[in-house]
TrEMBL record:
Domain of life the protein comes from: Bacteria
Lineage: Bacteria, Bacillati, Actinomycetota, Actinomycetes, Kitasatosporales
UniProt-recorded Gene Ontology molecular function terms: acyltransferase activity, transferring groups other than amino-acyl groups
Pfam families on file: Thiolase_C_1
Residue intervals of the Thiolase C-terminal domain: 47-109
PANTHER family: ACETYL-COA C-ACETYLTRANSFERASE (PTHR42870), NON-SPECIFIC LIPID-TRANSFER PROTEIN-LIKE 2 (PTHR42870:SF1)
InterPro entries for this protein: Thiolase-like (IPR016039), Thiolase_C_2 (IPR055140)
Official protein name in the record: Thiolase C-terminal domain-containing protein
Amino acid sequence: MKAYVAGVGMTRFEKPETRDWQYWDMVREAGGVALADARIGYDEVEQVPVGYFSGGLISKGHPLGATGVAQTAELVWQRRGAAARRQVEGARVGLAHNIGLGGAAVVTVLKAV
């Protein structure tokens, strides 16, 4: 959960793209540490925008092996201002979290330049 390793700095991500069922698992497993690292109090969590503004992976048919591509494409469209009705105003930094078979895990961070 330490995004600053990627050179992004401590950032509140604009609506991260996570797997449809994993956000609460992430919070439960690493929430306390992540919130402490980011100096975000539990009372502020509701203010951090989280959701599946793209409709989530299930809305895309959840194609085996290609779900991460859909997440990354959504992040790119958001950064470019090309997400149509789903556009998050001022989206500059995005995060996608995905896992695959065999326990593979990937977190992608994109920043507009």
